[in-house]
Fold this protein.
Amino acid sequence: MAEREQKRKPAPQREEEAVEDVPAASESGEKIKAELDDLLDEIDDVLEQNAEDFVKSYIQKGGQ
Amino acid sequence: MAIPKICGIETEFGIIVRGGGESNPITASSVLINAYVQELVRTGQTARTAPRVGWDFEDEMPHVDARGTTPGDASPPEVETHLVNAVLTNGARYYVDHAHPECSTPECADAREVVVWDRAAEEILRRSMVAARSLLGPGEEIVVHKNNSDGKGNSYGCHENYLLARETPFGRIVREITPFFVTRQVFCGAGKVGVEAPGLSIHEVPYQLSQRADFFEEEVGLETTLKRPIVNTRDEPHADAQKYRRLHVIIGDANMSEVATYLKVGTTAIVLSMIEDDELGLDLAPAAPVAALRAVSYDLGLTTPFDLASGGTITALEVQWEYLERARKYAETRGLECVGESVGEDVLARWEDVLHRLETDPMSAADTVDWVAKRRLLEGYRERHGLEWGDPRLAAVGLQYHDLRPDRCLALRAGLQTLVDPAEAAHAVADPPETTRAYFRGRCLQKWPESIVAANWDSLVFDVGGDPLRRVPMMEPSRGTAAHVGTLIDECDTAAELLDRLGS
């Protein structure tokens, strides 16, 4: 396994960027959280109203 | 040198009827497909008989085993029932298989084309759902999901097909592809809430990488509906059997992520080319492949190793790094012409990128990998509403990720990267790829639908009046491309003229 570790190439650029990106990272972290909140709002809007019935009646027989 | 890896995907879709009483899935599937065909006719998008073309079963032989024998204890595969069958002008086949609507893409030359025509297949199903409304009762709706499990122990497939040289020994294919198939789910698993393998419950496995891993029980075999094998042995090349094999891959999940489909097909095509050229030289056989397949699917951290047959242990990501490293060497020494040079290089770059991201932080692959994207939605939703994993709302999120209705589909809202422009997918609903024999099939169906009475992957049967029916064999999947026959088809006014000039 150790040999395998050594052969692996690090991701290009990613490590250098990480240091400078600290302030930006927390900003982008908030942005990601806001995006997820919007997404969850949308799921609340479009998700099946009666999830229990929907899940219970979802039966798919006879497949490969 | 490996032969061109002509490939395609056939997807069985989940189907339900909403707002009605008891419904029969075979009837619903037939209604769905007939509705699409009628809509094509009504809007003049194709001439009147094209989609009603029959299927030519002359060369079908789904019972032939690539190992050369049929084991005595294996039950014969179920005879497929094709109640409704449409051959489309994009070269695809759209039909009722078992109790599901199924769409097979046309033969494609590379992974990117597969993504384009897989997107077209989704669009065909969407248009079918809309068209079916006029055939149903008030308040009724047919809903289609691109998934592989109902969460109750029933599974349906998304099968891939790859063209291989006949002389490639089948034993080598099985030996060398198995570790890859056991582990590729780290980037092409579609994710599933709960578990359907016997003896386990949602308490032990609240979420897993793959839709399908629970349903595989054998390492190698002919079945597709029971005792499913990791490597399927169906030996039905739909091409010159002296020259070709078709590897029928039944282990994959249907992907909502375009990049996941691209990686699934692209990496598999490269690995199969290496196997064909005997350039892989890896022995990473799991000690217990079926158990390893499930263990990998249940390991959300991607860090738990499984036992190797040769001794020692390895993680799924380590297996994938080994295959990638060999693929890089193969690309340097042999080139990637057989999978499309630029697509092959792009697949290698994206393969490396996704492995890095999965290794660093699996959640960082949420814009690429379906099981990660879905997990992000589930974890967020679970936290917001304080839900236990067994809550039906989470199961509903898991199902609705795959709902093909644009106003309901959660995958469409999950921030997945795309590869294909919607206009390109729309074009692929009507037109075939230019790079394989699908071009000949599609163009002939567009231009002379009234003269074609039957079609199959490897033949077209014409009725040009007077003479007996004339069957044009298409045993070479890489012939009949736009470069070969585009001008000929353009120049011919009638099917009879085409047949005369083809000399058939």
Notes: The first helix of chain B runs from residue 25 to 42. Confidence is low (pLDDT under 50) at residues 47-51, 70-82 of chain B.
